[in-house]
Design goal:
By secondary structure, this protein is mainly α. Helices cover 78% and strands 0% of the residues. Mean pLDDT is 82; it is low at 99-107.
Amino acid sequence: MSASSCSLCTFAKSSIGRKIIVALTGLALVLFLAGHLSGNLLIFAGEEAFNDYAHFLHTFLHGAGVWIARIGLLFCFVTHIVFTVLLTKENKSTRAKYAKDTTVQASKSSRLMIWSGLTILAFVVFHLLHFTVRTDAELAALGEISPWEMVIVAFQNPLVVIFYVIAMTCLCSHLGHGVASIFQTLGLRTKKTAGPIQFLSKAYATVIYIGFISIPLAILLFGFGR
């Protein structure tokens, strides 16, 4: 094993190394969410605009672009979850050495980070099966339909919308704590910036939440696109 490989392994096994890995993969996912939401909101610009956006994604770099993005995001997502679980187990082992339970100092969202993360993971799997693999019987029965039609049909199902909103609620809770944690882990949080960073974290989570749930709710409750 080379010296660089050994250094990387040592870094990944250290507490600070794991925190940095979680922060950097989290940052990549946070930036992805902003871009993904921007594209999804094009559905309100009309069928042509949304279909053109979907066509661009699937033809970028002759179709390789979307797969490069998927593989990269999958790597970040899995790495983020794995190292978050490792840190959680490490923290529990550390707390067990002390008589006083320090979890009372942690925020509710912080203690629930692992559970909200696992819920988001379940949603991602469902989301990919639903829209990419198209395991939904109703969508499969329609045959070849445009991305616009696929979204409109999918979100006419109340159960799909309910699960979507629950997942986005977990995501919002996760982001509300996670974005601020990224700044702290990367050494960008000070006494002066703590307040603005906390506000930015909550504001970003709120924008992401409202943006994502606006689409299924507009379709299901207000008949958008029908």
